[in-house]
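Next up, sample data:
>
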Amino acid sequence: MKRVFKALSRLLATTPFRVLLVLLLALELFYLAEVMLDDRRRVLENQQRDMVAELAARERARIEYALSSTVYLAQGLVAFTRSVDQPSEAQINRALQTIYEADARIRNIGLAPDNVLAYVYPLEGNRAALGLRYADLPAQWPSVQQAMASRQTVVTGPVKLVQGGRAVISRTPVYLKDGSYWGLISIVIDLDALLQAQDSGSNTDAVRFRILGDAVDGAERAVMLDDGPLAIRAAVQMPLHVGAADWLLLAEPEGGWDRFDQAILIWRLQLYAGAVALSIFLFVILHSRAEAKRLADELRESNRHLAASNDALEYLSRYDPLTNVANRRYFDEVLLRALGQCRRHRLPLAILMVDLDHFKGINDNYGHAVGDDCLIRVASLITQVLQRAEDLVARFGGEEFIVLAQGLNEAQAVALGERIRRVIAGTLIEHDRADLDPLRITASIGLVSAVPDHAMSGEEICRRADEALYAAKKGGRNQVKAYDNIQNEESYT
């Protein structure tokens, strides 16, 4: 060992060796610097993308709210049509005027009994449209048929307005109490006014947006809003739900995606200067070792933070943020695995759909905050009832939960459903409304238990549970129905 140290000392005494050692250390430090810079660049880019995604989500919520609030005005005319038997022309015009004046974005509104435009407001500039039969208009008839078939509002467009600007057309079908089709309500909405009214505090000027219309029958999406050139592949993309259609919202920073070249260059120069300084003072071995350790510690800390961030993102992608139970995406993953296991081992797979009864009334009478408390409490109650680690409860949408339990036959699944129903029915939800009693809720449960074969998909077994749930609600709510039982009941009717 002494000979080695002596040989090393001799080498350090030579200029070529010292130069070689300094160069090797400099190269190593330059490499570490590039690793840190690349990591820092990714952090900055992710922060920028998160900012754009947040602003895009706000803009999407604003547009969806603005459009839905305008479209929802048609429900007033639906109620008017159902409740007033053979209204006079004056009554109809007053109703149209009321809806028209309720929202400045409405250009005109019309009623078409039996799909023939009989009333329009304002009449000025629209008189020529009276008497038009939608069935005779190839460009509009498909959307009318879609609204009639879906029994939902259909929004189409954009269309150019004669008086300038663009508009979308909302078509709402009207079905009377006896289920017969009465006709159509059409609202022409100023698209430019709808899209350009931005929240002054939302900082959306920092983001460039493009909104594309629905892709109907594979056709190219129409451009609803275009703030300027935009890289579609790199842009943040979010769906915009408009009635029965899905628009697409694209967003990117106003100046494009910044590569942070200037900041990275400054940091690179700083790191390189430090590396050169460390290389020059290589002979201070203790100092160089301490510096290397510091750099290694920073790298480990960065990796730890990255791993923690990945864990947090993984949790958010799998669990519902309100109730902290699994979301539908994670449920679908678990269901796919459970189907495979049950097929291999010939085990029954039970699916229970739990739907809170009259939940809309809770939101309407007690407020959405109490409604959210109900969902959180129900999710906790179901989780407590499930005693096996492999059982899963997920929020399936709105006030609906779904439970997956392997190895339970129908009788066991019914017993589990009854336990869930009873614990929910026996729970009081406290609230701050002094004028109302504590809230008691109930739930309807539909379930299916089957040994799946290769022909049974996840969609099919969930469909059966949903059909049983429908039977439970139809049968009076606050009860448990099994799919096989309702099939037997139907076979005897």
Q: What stands out?
A: Residues 286 and 292 are 10 Å apart (CA to CA). The chain has a mean pLDDT of 82.
